[in-house]
Amino acid sequence: MTSKTVGPPTEMPNVARVIPDPGRAQRPGRRRHWRQVLRRDWQLYSLALLPLIFFAIFRYLPMLGNVIAFRRYRPGGDNIFDNIFGTEWVGLRYVRLFLSDPTFWDVFSNTLILGTLTLLFLFPLPIVLALLLNEVSNRYLKRFVQSVSYLPHFLSIVIVAGMIMQFTSVDGVVNQMLRSVGGEAISFLQRPEWFRTIYVSSEVWQTVGWGTILYLAALTAIDNDLYEAARIDGANRWRQTWHVTLPGIRPTMMTLLILNIGTFMAVGFEKILLIYNPLTYPTADVVSTYLFRVGVQSGLFSYAAAIGLFEAVIGLILVVAANTISRRTVGASLW
Amino acid sequence: MIVAEARESVVQHRTGPRRARPTRGYRVFQVVNAVILTGVVVATLYPFVNIVARSFSEEHYLIMGEVNLVPRGFSTAAYKYVTADPMFWTNYRNTVVYTVVSTFIAIVLTTTYAYVLSKKHLRGRGVLIGVAMLTLFFNGGLIPNYVLVSNLGLTNSIWAIALPNAISVFNLLVMKAFFESLPVELEEAAAVDGLSTYGILWRIVLPLSKAVVATMVLFYAVSFWNSWFSAFLYMDQQDLWPVTMYLRNLIAGATGTDMTAGTIAEGDQLQVAATIQSVTIVLTVLPILLVYPFIQRYFVSGVMIGAVKG
């Protein structure tokens, strides 16, 4: 290109021969290399084919499908492209719409509150339970407690929702206790002020036991010599826990904290969908349930996709931020 | 003398140096700890026992709020009612079929991809891993997925459940870690003997991986068995539902969650639903409870592999 303007036309073939030569020599080489690679490993690549098709269709196509947040969507057209990606660009129209939607801000703050409560309880409680289990000297007792506490993790969310309803219903156990101390029965699931308590305690019930697994593994990996040394230095058990045990499981703690923060916005969507109702919307309705109603039930796909994209971006920012902070401060990070 | 020392160090090693010389304060702590852990066990099991008690009680006692841990006015009427409903069995059978087919597809895709990713010499391996890892941090979201699956014409079919969830990246990483830990020499020897890559995977690698494959089957099977949301989104014919949707409808009907269906039940109808709910919960949870003691440790080991390598 430059030779054309600088040098006279007669020089061109010469220059062209000298300059692009390495590129020309390299490219066929690389191509030959790929041909070799393909000949050697084509069977391996062929095994990757179906999984790659899966990722392309069911993971990456929906990612691209988020463009409907910026495009008008008319369902029921003949063109499958229009049906997935919308028909025309409308810019930030839907973003502006939801930012000025008061309901959006209500569900947004509900999400932040529920997310914070979940983090406050579901992050530290498994650590506490793991530490308590670690102090049990009877192996069979320890294993029994573990087995029982893992159990709720294996239940369908629908079953958990059903149990919550039975437990908190007017004739349920909680109200029996209330009545036995002279209180009046409360229909908990119809009361907005009870929703957060019910949600968080049921999450605790279902996830805390299972959450101890990784901590227990980290605890067994702590070198016994460290305890010995601490004991010789005169540390009592409490100080041993504080100065040896907790630093020993810190990498695990940070990893799980980052993961927890990553799911902060995606509070238990399915569970809320099962146990909330219009009466408890003031506290129970979160971003994901709102966009479900707006999108799937009312068919406002673009509007709901815009909200969903916003939620996903916040989630991504939170994970990256948590990871960076953790790496800078304690040196533990996911990537 | 040496033997005694050695024995002591063995004992020390097993119980740990922390167990030496418990102080008075520590003994108090152990008692408190035992009480707390007993509390955890009781709190975990309480709802199960309560549900079973309710399922065997007479409605009359339920309404009065008198059923706690023991069934009152023992009755199996609700069981007879639920098991006599052909739709319950249709949906139960659907759950079994969906679980088997979806798990099969998931295992095939996860195993093959994990095997490819475990080959360190493979060109483009980094890209292939990246393709999977990226989906951990960013996924399409509910609406684009819904739009896609509906437009692919998968609604009201098993494919709406099986295909979108065919590979869990977590399980993929567990399997990849396992395959990487297998000795390379075995596969090299098989290759020298003229086995193709397919042959190596099928006849050498998979027979060595039975344990991890079984673990993955359990992971997928439990998640498909428990799933309801895909069916909720993509199936509007009741005879196609899994049993979790059967239960979800009972719940929604009884509490007025499903306002759109206009089923705010009368007082006594609500109570009928309550016994039936308990029975349906018991019958749905039963298979999980029965196999749980046997599969639990596989889950724990699977999580460990994934955590160490992922």
From TrEMBL, chain A:
<feature type="region of interest" description="Disordered">
    <location>
        <begin position="1"/>
        <end position="28"/>
    </location>
</feature>
<feature type="transmembrane region" description="Helical">
    <location>
        <begin position="204"/>
        <end position="222"/>
    </location>
</feature>
<protein>
    <submittedName>
        <fullName>Sugar ABC transporter permease</fullName>
    </submittedName>
</protein>
<keyword id="KW-1003">Cell membrane</keyword>
<dbReference type="InterPro" id="IPR050809">
    <property type="entry name" value="UgpAE/MalFG_permease"/>
</dbReference>
<dbReference type="GO" id="GO:0005886">
    <property type="term" value="C:plasma membrane"/>
</dbReference>
<keyword id="KW-0813">Transport</keyword>
<dbReference type="InterPro" id="IPR000515">
    <property type="entry name" value="MetI-like"/>
</dbReference>
<feature type="domain" description="ABC transmembrane type-1">
    <location>
        <begin position="108"/>
        <end position="322"/>
    </location>
</feature>
<dbReference type="GO" id="GO:0055085">
    <property type="term" value="P:transmembrane transport"/>
</dbReference>
<feature type="transmembrane region" description="Helical">
    <location>
        <begin position="42"/>
        <end position="61"/>
    </location>
</feature>
<keyword id="KW-0472">Membrane</keyword>
<keyword id="KW-0812">Transmembrane</keyword>
<comment type="similarity">
    <text>Belongs to the binding-protein-dependent transport system permease family.</text>
</comment>
<dbReference type="InterPro" id="IPR035906">
    <property type="entry name" value="MetI-like_sf"/>
</dbReference>
<feature type="transmembrane region" description="Helical">
    <location>
        <begin position="300"/>
        <end position="321"/>
    </location>
</feature>
<feature type="transmembrane region" description="Helical">
    <location>
        <begin position="144"/>
        <end position="167"/>
    </location>
</feature>
<dbReference type="Pfam" id="PF00528">
    <property type="entry name" value="BPD_transp_1"/>
</dbReference>
<feature type="transmembrane region" description="Helical">
    <location>
        <begin position="107"/>
        <end position="132"/>
    </location>
</feature>
<keyword id="KW-1133">Transmembrane helix</keyword>
<feature type="transmembrane region" description="Helical">
    <location>
        <begin position="256"/>
        <end position="276"/>
    </location>
</feature>
